[in-house]
Amino acid sequence: MDQQEFVQEAAQRRIDDDIAKRIKVHQANIERLETARDSAGNLEAAVANRPLVMLAQGDSWFDYPLTGNGFPFVDTDVIAQLRRIGPMPPTILNLAHHGDAATDEMSLPKQQRMISALRNKANWLDGKPDAILFSAGGNDIAGDQFCIFLDFNDGHAAGLNKDRFTKALGMVEACYLDLFALRDRVAPGVPIFGHCYDFPIPNGSHPSCVGPWLKPSLDFCNWSVAKGTVIVHDTLAAFRDVVKRLADEPRNNFHLVDTQGTLKVADWANELHPDPAGFKKIAQKFADALKAKLQT
Fold first, then answer.
1. Considering the entire predicted model, what is its pTM?
2. Entry's InterPro entries (predicted)?
3. 240 with 149, same domain?
């Protein structure tokens, strides 16, 4: 085994250990809720007043272990914020991991993990989750591969190469469709809620441990930050069109939390991630959508 393989295996073990700990904590929370419900006597009232119980799969918008751009290591992401919203915040089994592309999230090992979680009755109050939360697509676009979707600025290019980018979006769409098929097979009837990110500024801002994700490709292809901001806006708008089309198809039972236009410049910690207050704004959008669809 070479050095790179050793490092990769060690990293994967840490991720697996972290997910196992999350599952253990989640199951303890479910056990407490079950005990409280059993002791209530009136089962109907207890069920009506219980929190939503959900599964989350996603990327760093669901698993961001930094406060802004640095220490301390505290989760400030959408899921962390959603767990604090309302008089009865949801109970969420979070399988997300920062850095995952949609193709990672729907890879064989992670589909197997989702299936195992969905089928384990110890994870749910009534046999299955009330909803599945999904954050995917950002890392399929941003990062060192972003340059693939850009025309070189020779004075005549448009910026975003729509033909190449459309092909990339096709793979992201395939991942969403595969998730819907998995849900239909393992947890039929459970709604899925996803989002469409927001419009960042590709100025090279990043934590010391990772990034930047956008500006290097723009620099490489000879685009300014000002023009790059327009390109990134077009990129995210095209992504929204894809997930909006999926949400408009009733058989998908997929609900788009429309997050674009939510964040101000001051809400961004870096090129890809909001600061804690920005994540809270996005989480509130999720809370509102969940209430409208599941708690009316």
1. 0.93
2. SGNH_hydro_sf (IPR036514)
3. yes
